[in-house]
Write a structure and sequence with these properties.
Length: 453
């Protein structure tokens, strides 16, 4: 509560509908409602393939309600929504192909329901980006996520271990999860929200219009959160998220320097260097000592073995198995019979897309990435302040998917990528209301008198 009060901006005016994506992301970045009510939660190693098919009726009710409310809001903002959709045809085509792919899935009903749920991510992003003051809406969205989820993770880890920790049934060792379900989820939660706090700090340092008192209060609030994020990174021991965080912070700070952010070739060079170093260290054995120094073996903790196994199970390389259908049924049973820890993803986002959507899906995703990057770089020349965060989230998305999969419904990294990649005509600015034209009152008609007639 103290953090909320410190960073409160009384001048910002955002829609009450912003609470809908806030609640959606509160759930997506932590745990489903059914798992919170189950106290100790569930773990993939103790689940059966049938549980993945059934899902939770309570969670379905909550998500459906949020999506319905979100669609009502978008319907009321019809003009702005249509304008935004026309500017983002590649993203619409990708979502449309995902829905069509349910037709050739082994589990068409499950695939289609998951696709409808995935549309909720796009609905939430559109609510934020059609607000009358987009920049204020993004700041308020980040604040409501940061000031609740990060301190609560610290609270649960220290004082409520039934909620904040997990214990391996095989080794007995403790892993720290906070508000999430596992340490990797805690890692990317710290990655996304820590990056948001860094951006808010940079914004306050660059803002010359606010009062010194308000600036100091905001810097204290986000500085405290950033200290918590570093501590949680250390506990989670999620090297993928931490390395992405360091790269993204470097890029965000650099692009806020006018000499760098306004020159496209420098931005291209920085992004290419970050992604090339990451890819080479992980897959080309260049700098393999760097990977080992971070506590990871050359096989990336067994990921390469999983990749070989699942790629050999794809029967249609062009179309894949259908949206979010690969990890179901007989395929899942075979994989779980080999791996006792029951993986439910390929631990590589691009392989995950290939498994579910085939080469055609990968091509459409590449188009979304390229057009999103072009839009961000073009906007960076006009406004480096807000666009630097968009660029950082896009690079995080690309790099994170090298060793983890973020192409999933309600995955926070996927949602933040959409928030960054969606092209907004005019940028993240306040939408000025249309000025009404005052009309002169009409003079009464002249009616001739009877005598004149």
């Amino acid at each position: 509560m103290g953090l909320f009060l410190l960073a409160r901006d009384r001048k910002a005016r955002t829609s009450k509908a912003l609470w809908i994506p806030v609640v959606w992301l509160w759930i997506a970045a932590s745990r489903p409602v059914s798992e919170w009510l189950g106290a100790a939660g569930t773990d993939a190693s103790s689940m059966s393939p049938g549980q993945l098919l059934d899902g939770s009726p309570l969670d379905r009710f909550v998500f459906t309600g949020l999506v319905v409310f979100g669609i009502v809001v978008l319907f009321m903002r019809g003009h702005r929504v249509r304008r935004l959709l026309r500017a983002n045809i590649p993203i619409l085509l990708f979502f449309l192909y995902c829905g069509v792919s349910a037709l050739w899935s082994d589990y068409s009903g499950v695939s289609f329901k998951r696709w409808v749920k995935a549309l909720g991510d796009l609905v939430m992003v559109l609510i934020v980006l059609t607000d009358s003051d987009i920049l204020a809406a993004v700041k308020r969205l980040l604040g409501r996520l940061v000031f609740l989820l990060i301190p609560t993770s610290v609270l649960l880890i220290k004082y409520y271990p039934d909620f904040g920790r997990r214990y391996s049934p095989f080794t007995g060792g403790a892993t720290y999860t906070g508000v999430t379900s596992n340490k990797n989820q805690l890692g990317y939660l710290c990655l996304l929200l820590g990056l948001g706090s860094v951006w808010c700090i940079v914004e306050e340092l660059r803002d010359r219009h606010g009062t010194r008192r308000n600036r100091t209060r905001t810097l204290i609030a986000h500085g405290v959160v950033l200290a918590m994020v570093i501590w949680l990174f250390w506990l989670a021991n999620s090297m993928t998220s931490f390395s992405c965080f360091l790269m993204a912070v470097t890029l965000l700070v650099a692009t806020n320097v006018r000499a760098f952010g306004r020159r496209s070739w420098i931005v291209h060079l920085m992004v290419a260097a970050i992604l090339t170093v990451s890819f080479s260290a992980l897959f080309l054995n260049f700098g393999s000592g760097l990977v080992q120094s971070m506590g990871r073996d050359p096989s990336l903790t067994g990921r390469t073995d999983i990749w070989k196994l699942v790629l050999g199970m794809v029967h249609n390389p062009l179309l894949g198995t259908g949206y979010d259908s690969f990890w179901l049924g007989k395929r899942l049973e075979k994989i779980w019979s080999i791996y006792w820890w029951h993986p439910v993803q390929a631990h590589n986002g691009y392989i995950e897309v290939f498994l579910n959507l085939g080469g055609l899906g990968l091509t459409l995703l590449a188009v979304v990435l390229v057009t999103g990057y072009k839009n961000i770089v073009a906007a960076l020349r006009r406004d480096s302040r807000s666009t630097s965060l968009r660029l950082a989230y896009l690079v995080v998305f690309v790099a994170y998917n090298f060793t983890e999969s973020a192409f999933a419904m309600m995955h926070p990294i996927w949602i933040f990528f959409l928030l960054a990649a969606v092209a907004v005509p005019g940028g993240w600015v306040r939408i000025q209301p249309r000025k009404s034209v005052a009309l002169a009152p009409l003079s009464p008609p002249v009616v001739p008198c009877l005598e004149e007639v």
